[in-house]
């Protein structure tokens, strides 16, 4: 019985790798981003996951994961990172799981502060606004989450407002 359960958990991924192993690699690359032996690819995964978790937090803020918000999140990740569709799907899956156990934004924003330029931080805040506007309902919890993240990323109030206005205009809101 236990053997069949384990064989289902470790069933090979369609691309020949174990899904458990792939997710573990991504998670490990996030939890140890500052390891001296971390490869550039591991550091890149860590940054990608941090950005994805913050986008997921906007989606989760209004208590409903609307398809339009999810599509906006995937579009934002695709525009910012050169990832294949299957990699984006795995990244979103891991980001959702990571966000569920996150108790604050600082471990994610700290990672991004170390690796993002100021324009990249502003782009992320704008992407968060795009996700918030995607369902045509701007929720107070979404606004609070974006404001908090912008502060932790050291985005000025002027940059924050400009990002919000660009996202609002793009959404036609």
Describe the structure.
The protein has about 170 residues and is mainly alpha-helical. It has one domain: TerB-like. It is about 75% helix and about 0% strand. The protein has 9 helices and no strands. The protein has helices spanning about 1-10, 20-30, 40-60, 65-80, 85-100, 105-115, 120-135, 140-150, 155-170. The chain starts with a helix and ends with a helix.
Tell me roughly what share of residues is in helical segments. Answer: over 70%
Instruction: Find the CATH topology.
Output: TerB-like
Question: How many distinct folded domains?
Answer: 1
What composes the largest sheet? none
Query: What's the oligomerization state?
Result: single chain
Shape: globular
Beta-strand residue fraction: under 5%
CATH level 4 superfamily: TerB-like
Main structural class = mainly alpha
Low-confidence stretches: 1-21, 29-34
CATH architecture tag: Orthogonal Bundle
Number of strands: 0
Question: What is the string of SSEs from the N terminus onward?
Answer: HHHHHHHHH
Instruction: Give the overall pLDDT as a whole number.
Output: 82
The CATH class is identified as: Mainly Alpha
How far do the termini sit from each other? 55 Å
Number of helices: 9
């Amino acid at each position: 019985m236990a053997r069949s359960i384990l064989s289902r958990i470790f069933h090979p991924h369609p691309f020949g790798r174990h899904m458990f192993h792939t997710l573990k690699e991504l998670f490990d690359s996030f939890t140890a981003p500052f390891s001296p032996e971390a490869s550039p690819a591991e550091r890149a995964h860590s940054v990608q996951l941090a950005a994805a978790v913050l986008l997921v937090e906007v989606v989760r803020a209004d208590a409903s994961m609307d398809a339009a918000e999810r599509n906006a999140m995937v579009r934002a990740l695709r525009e910012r990172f050169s990832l294949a569709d299957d990699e984006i799907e795995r990244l979103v899956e891991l980001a959702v799981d990571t966000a569920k156990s996150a108790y604050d934004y600082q471990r994610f924003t700290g990672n991004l502060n170390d690796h993002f330029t100021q324009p990249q931080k502003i782009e992320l805040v704008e992407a968060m606004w795009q996700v918030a506007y995607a369902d045509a309902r701007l929720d107070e919890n979404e606004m609070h989450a974006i404001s908090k993240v912008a502060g932790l990323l050291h985005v000025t109030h002027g940059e924050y407002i400009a990002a919000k206005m660009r996202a609002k205009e793009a959404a036609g809101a």
